[in-house]
Amino acid sequence: MTIETLLDAVRFNDDGLIAAIAQADGTNEVLMLAWMNRDALRETLETGRVCYWSRSRKGLWRKGETSGQVQHLVEARLDCDGDAVLLLVNQKGVACHTGRRSCFYRAMRPEGFVDTSAPEISQEALYGR
Length: 129
Prior knowledge:
Blueprint: H1 3-8, E1 18-24, E2 30-36, H2 38-47, E3 51-54, E4 59-62, E5 71-78, E6 84-91, E7 106-109, E8 112-115, H3 123-127
Parallel strand pairs: 1-6
Antiparallel strand pairs: 1-2, 3-4, 5-6, 7-8
């Protein structure tokens, strides 16, 4: 089966995107959710380096291109409806732009939001700002 045949099975939304959940291989920790278009998913499958579609930049975004926090694909899994993809990845460093390992650090509790983890690295160290 070719990559194009695999991509033909994906149900991209009206904007040409699919939700992509990055999960740490081995620990199953959910790291982040981002979006992929056909080109991003194709590049990820071809190269093994995870590439997303940046809705704000309106372009391909290779995870770690500015921060060095690269994701390497172990396996991509399409859900039963074909409209979401799970990426099992080897994460170099942190996944979140806030410097945390995971983007899912804000617990919603009756008393309000509670941070469940602290940044492991500063945004200045990640992005030089």
